[in-house]
Amino acid sequence: MKKSLLLLVALCVFMGRLGFAQQEIVNELNQKYAKYTAISDKIWQLAEPGYLEEKTSELLISELTNAGFEVQRGVGEMKTAFVATYGSGYPTIGILAEMDALPGLSQEAVPYRKAKYVNAYGHGCGHNLFGVGSVAAAIATKNWMEKAKIKGTIRLIGTPAEEGAGGGKTYLVKEGVFKDIDAVLHWHPGDNNNASPNSSLAYRVANFSFSGLAAHASASPEKGRSALDAVEAMNYMVNLMREHISPETRIHYVIKNGGLTSNIVPDYAMVEYTIRNPTAQGLEEIWKRLMKTAEAAALGTETKMSYEILAGLYNLLPNDILAKEMQKSLEKVGGVKYTPEETAFAEKIRLTVNSQSLAPLTEAQTVKPYTSGLAFPASTDVGDVSWVTPTAGLSTATWVTGVPAHSWQAVACNGMSIGHKGMMNAAQTIAQTAQNLFKDTKLIEQSKEELYQRRGTKVFEYKSLAGDRKPPLDYRK
């Protein structure tokens, strides 16, 4: 009885210390609120595109270096990619930090459309907040580890070019950056607070080029072989194929080159295709069928076909063990509470959103309940990371409820206080989750077992869905 009482007292003391340590992290991040929001605003102003985030990368590296991290630059043949490390030994916990912006979304931080620069980039996905929030979490975790003499390693991975055909993380996975990381934490800006695990769609994008014979379209059309005919034939067959694919599969295309003038039989044409499927295996099956339509189009029009894979991403593998820990931390942190000025901003910007029904503004203040089995109908290069190490992420309400990603409305929110509050909530959540994992490494081992079960194997040989392609460093130039 006496022994049991002593154990209970010791447990209470431990839990009390853990709670105090978490409050220390919260206090540190609150004290640095102005500092981190100023950095995120500077990156928001820079709005650098994929693989060109040079000033952004340097800002993040500077903060980490000053905080005592060792930084490796230019990882995976990508100038703006970096890995910042503090500590040594087991466990190693990684935190992802994205950086790139989107084309055509330049916007002032106002609740109406007002481009800062014409046809310029803007942070429509909130990566100015993503990168800084993750750095803030890593530094807060490092400071706690140092003070409490915690064994282990915290590693911040600066990941460029998530958007479009960039796929920066896929090249970091190929480089082996994640092979010795025991768990990965990340977050993403959004219009709600949610840590439930999601799956996503595996993805591949490729250009199909057709070469024919030019000729006078009126005087001697019989001498020509139209490359545009081949593109249109391929598109027609793909559209017929849609009836015979799974409902979850997505196929989109755009003709990028259809010839120069209607009076010349086009001798060159190109179409870009994006395909998506819930699994990498399903994606490969759709890819084989897509290839057959391209080959058939070339055969039927007497043209020559070539293709280039631009990017390929795995589907996300959810991890309930890690996600539940992140949910606990998010529930402690809570949602985003608006001032009267922020409420006025939110109400104005919601009037510009094309939606039949909008959730109440108060949803930003709450945390969505934990739900398993969710499917995100889009793609992310975090998926590749999730296949090689246990991975969990969350979203916080950096955007007004109802505002979609990749919109000028999101850019506006990302450059003002609503976005700042969501960013710091994410930083607190990630730091507290990392702290819990360092304190209880059994959770990490359990998350690895879950990964093996979902993957179907303990030993996994990663093969990029982009093939042998090197980082497309000029894809935004």
Automatic annotation (TrEMBL):
Residues 208-299 form the Peptidase M20 dimerisation domain. Keywords: Hydrolase, Signal. One of its GO terms (biological process) is folic acid catabolic process. GO terms for cellular component: cytoplasm. InterPro entries: Amidohydrolase, Aminobenzoyl-glu_utiliz_pB, Bact_exopeptidase_dim_dom, Peptidase_M20, Peptidase_M20/M20A_hydrolases, Peptidase_M20_dimer. One of its GO terms (molecular function) is para-aminobenzoyl-glutamate hydrolase activity. Residues 1-21 form the signal peptide. This is Aminobenzoyl-glutamate utilization protein B. It comes from Arcicella rosea. The lineage of its organism: Bacteria, Pseudomonadati, Bacteroidota, Cytophagia, Cytophagales.
